[in-house]
Amino acid sequence: MNIIFLLLFFSLLIAVAFLAAFLWSSNSGQFEDVEGPAMRMLREDRKKQSTNS
Amino acid sequence: MEKEIFKYDNVITRNFLVATVIWGVIAFLVGLIAATQLFYPDLNLDLPWLTFGRLRALHTNGAIFAFVGNAIFAGVYHSMQRLLKTRMASDLLSKIHFIGWQLIIVSAVITLPLGLTSSKEYAELEWPIDIAITLVWVVFGINMFWTILKRRERHLYVAIWFYIATFVTVAVLHIVNNIELPVSAFKSYSVFAGVQDALVQWWYGHNAVAFFLTTPVLGLMYYFLPKAAQRPVYSYRLSIIHFWALIFIYIWAGPHHLLYTSLPDWAQSLGTVFSIMLIFPSWGGMINGLLTLRGAWDRVRDSAVLKFFVVAISAYGMATLEGPLLSLKNLNAIAHYTDWIPAHVHIGTLGWNGFLIFGMIYWLLPRLYQTSLYSEKLANWHFFIGTLGIVFWALPMYVAGFTQSMMWKQFNPDGSLLYGNFLETVTQIIPMYMLRAFGGLLYLIGATLLVINVVRTIKSGKLLREEEASAPALAKRYQKEKGEYWHRWIERRPVTLLLWSTVVILIGGAVEIIPTMKIDSNVPKLEAVKPYTPLELAGRDLYIREGCNACHSQMIRPFRSETARYGEYSKAGEFVYDHPFLWGSKRTGPDLHRIGGKYPDSWHYYHMKDPTIMSPGSIMPRYGWLMTNSLDFESIPPKIQAMITLGVPYTQEEADDAANIALAQAEKIAANLNNDENIEVLPQDEIVALIAYLQRLGTDIKTVE
Fold first, then answer.
1. How far apart are CA B26 and CA B14, in angstroms?
2. Chain A partners of B288 at a C-beta cutoff of 8 Å?
3. Which residue among B69, B418, B647, B676 is buried most deeply as judged by most CB within 10 Å?
4. Best of A41, A42, A44 to disrupt the B interface by mutation (most B CBs within 10 Å)?
5. Nearest to B236 among A38, A45, A47 (CB)
6. Structure confidence by residue, pLDDT tens digits, B284-343
7. CB contact under 8 A, B155 and A36
8. Complete DSSP assignment for B423-477
9. Rounded to whole angstroms, how far apart are CA atoms B608 and B691?
10. What number of CA atoms fall less than 13 Å from residue A7's CA on the CB side?
11. Which of B227, B244, B462, B495 to mutate to test the interface with A (most CBs of A within 10 A)?
12. Pick from B387, B265, B389, B259: which is nearest to B324 by CA?
């Protein structure tokens, strides 16, 4: 059942990659504001369309 | 700060959106045809490319990769530009991605009905298409990460994280599960065998659901639901927890597809534990979605878009509770191999994926075309008909699955099987198959209403090809210092780092580990188990071509109800030469692992010619072309050669002489068949090879029983 090592390896690889991504995002302040982003994404930065009904 | 003016690319979104609608209708239609064949087999018109075994793969691939795939890309290209406040990095890459993906789908539509398949579920496409998928996926990845690097918004909104996880994980899954040795232009063998191949396949299969049908669609939910409801997501904090918890847990749940097989018990339990844990992030996400509508439920009444979203998110919640429950061994013993599993899956695909996508289309299309939806009323009709469709699809299948499983396990007082004839358990649930097809029909009718609405909306509006927007540039956070180490430079580029480290480790891991996957270090070896004869191997490839594994398992679980019906339970050591494994996941027909020697050759001949001759009432299709098609004996030696490369112990003489060895065996079987006065076969008829394979199945260890 060596295959388990292969799959463990790739699964851990993915997990470690995500862990690195998490540490980066956490350290770089991605999660300092957990209210603003939810509001900001609602804002339309598109120019007013007169044809829009 | 100075505002920069830039333009969003709406054309790419529109293209993927239109492709979604077209492929969606086709995938639903193919599904309906396949579902109808289960109670009206004549619908295949006796054409090979319309039989259930081949259509089933076309339907699943169409629904997953064509319908949901295109919808994901439409949503990703739309939302990513706006969330990152930048145009996609490269219009050219976007176009290559779009055209490449459509060509891959077209090639699937051609090759799958032709029977060109690797047999691995949701990864059926043969090796040249696998390579094309990899290339197009990389194009998508480059475009996405490049866009992220160019962003004008420092914070990566949670949807973006879901997209990143999708890209990274699907890339790894696709490559690992499709490591195969090409034999000819459209034929390959998995380098893994038997139980190992099964584990890789379901590690892939489960995570394909996780990272193709779930994470990207959650990303879409976190973008389009707040937009449509015009209020922020209930808890952004929860969405972040949802994301990280989900991706760390999901990857370990795959073994729950192999409960009661020869997989080591600890691995099965590990899969179950992680599956149960998955309830929490999944339900966190569902609750977060539903509570986003707090105080806005009155709008659900008026808005078809929100209605679709509410049912989609509810279906997500139901499917992600049911999944962990099905991974409990006691429930799995009942549900596995039955129609319960398709019911579970279709709550996910029809409800969660389909309805979220429909909602997204109805919301997005009028905005791209600067108009309002052609008919809100029609969209509401779509919603109600579609919802009824889901109910009619799933409920009968739950009943059918449970009924059939109970019948399989029912004993007489004397200890014999109450329903010893498998067919009895099939004819019992045929009314349920009819209701299910009716559900599918309703869902398809709903989708045609979508088509009408889409066409009329497009006609009444004008596509806003380039949408102008403005945002301040992202302030540079770091200044490069003189003489700093290169690796500090690279640390500041986390995306680049992530990408390259993944690539490097992938290559390293592949080089190091794959050679250790040889057979001798594999599973407990059984002395009696020998490789297939050349003719049997050719017959096995016919079994794969016809998709027999779509309806027949080759894995007898260690239950008395199964050993009484089929014979000795399946051992891991019996599959060491099976490249690929053919355990199947559904028993629309009986298990075939111990079919060898159970019936005379002539029984198989008549049964394949017309199953109702031997089993009146059978819903299996006729395979008349096997009696007239000729097997190409010259194609066999390269196959044996490939098996030698994969470590199967054939001698070189056997490989060189494979055509003659096969012919000699075929002549024997043909002579035996021709003893029956109603049968006239030639040794080179395909049916002879298939019978050779079927008669070999599971016979190697009969002596130890």
1. 19
2. none
3. B69
4. A41
5. A38
6. 999 999 999 998 899 999 999 999 999 999 999 999 999 999 999 999 999 999 999 999
7. yes
8. HHHHHTTHHHHHHHHHHHHHHHHHHHHHHHHHHHHHHHS----EEEEEEEPPPP-
9. 9
10. 23
11. B244
12. B259
- List the one residue out of B76, B198, B188 whose CA is nearest residue B137: B76
Is the Cβ–Cβ distance between B223 and B159 less than 8 Å? yes
Supply B286's token pair: 């569902």
Question: Would you give the DSSP letter of residue A46?
Answer: B
Chain B residues in contact with A1 (beta carbon < 8 A): 195-196, 264, 522-523
Number of neighbouring beta carbons within 10 Å of residue B229: 23
Distance CA B17, CA B71 (A): 6
The first and second tokens of residue B105, run together, are 């789908």
- Distance in angstroms (rounded) separating the CA atoms of residues B330 and B127: 38
Distance of residue A27 Cα from the nearest chain B Cα, in angstroms: 11
Task: Return the SS3 of B586.
Answer: strand
Q: Inter-chain contact B468–A47, Cβ cutoff 8 Å?
A: yes
Contact B497 A6 (CB under 8 A): no
**3-class DSSP state for residue B398?**
helix
Q: List, in order, residues 6 or more apart from B179 with CB less than 8 Å away.
A: B190, B191, B192, B510, B514
pLDDT per residue as tens digits for the range B543-583: 999 999 999 999 999 999 999 999 999 988 899 999 999 99
Quick one: angle between helices B686-696 and B658-674, nearest 10?
A: 90
Report yes or no: B561 and B409 within 8 Å, Cβ to Cβ.
yes
In this structure, what token pair is assigned to residue B129?
A: 């298409």
- Alpha carbon distance B318, B313 (integer Å): 9
Looking at chain B, which residue has its C-alpha nearest residue A8?
Answer: B252
Residues of A with CB under 8 A from a CB of B: 1-7, 9-11, 13-15, 17-22, 24-25, 28, 30-31, 33-42, 45-47, 49, 51-53
Tens-level pLDDT at each residue, chain A (53 residues) = 677 778 888 888 888 888 888 888 888 888 888 888 888 888 875 554 444 43
pTM of the complete model: 0.92
Which residues from A are below 8 Å from B200, CB to CB? 3, 6-7
What is d(CA B151, CA B129) in angstroms, rounded to the nearest whole number? 33
From the candidate CATH numbers 3.40.50.300, 2.40.10.220, 2.60.40.10, 1.10.760.10, the one assigned to the domain spanning B534-704: 1.10.760.10
CB-CB neighbors (< 8 A) of A48 in chain B: none
Judge whether B363 is closer than 8 Å to chain A, CB to CB. no
* Residue in B284, B280, B259, B281 with CA at minimum distance from that of residue B271: B259
Record the tokens describing residue B114, joined without a space.
């032709």
Residue A43, classified by CB atoms within 10 Å of its CB into exposed (0-12), middle (13-18) or buried (19+), is exposed
Per this entry, what is the length of chain A?
Answer: 53
Q: How many CB pairs under 8 A join A and B?
A: 123
B264 touches chain A (CB under 8 A): yes
Nearest to B172 among A14, A21, A45 (CB): A14
- What CATH fold (topology level) applies to the domain B293-475? Cytochrome C Oxidase; Chain A (1.20.210)
Q: Closest approach of chain A CAs to the CA of B455, in angstroms?
A: 19
What three-state secondary structure class fits B526? coil
Contact flag B251-A14 (C-beta cutoff 8 Å): yes
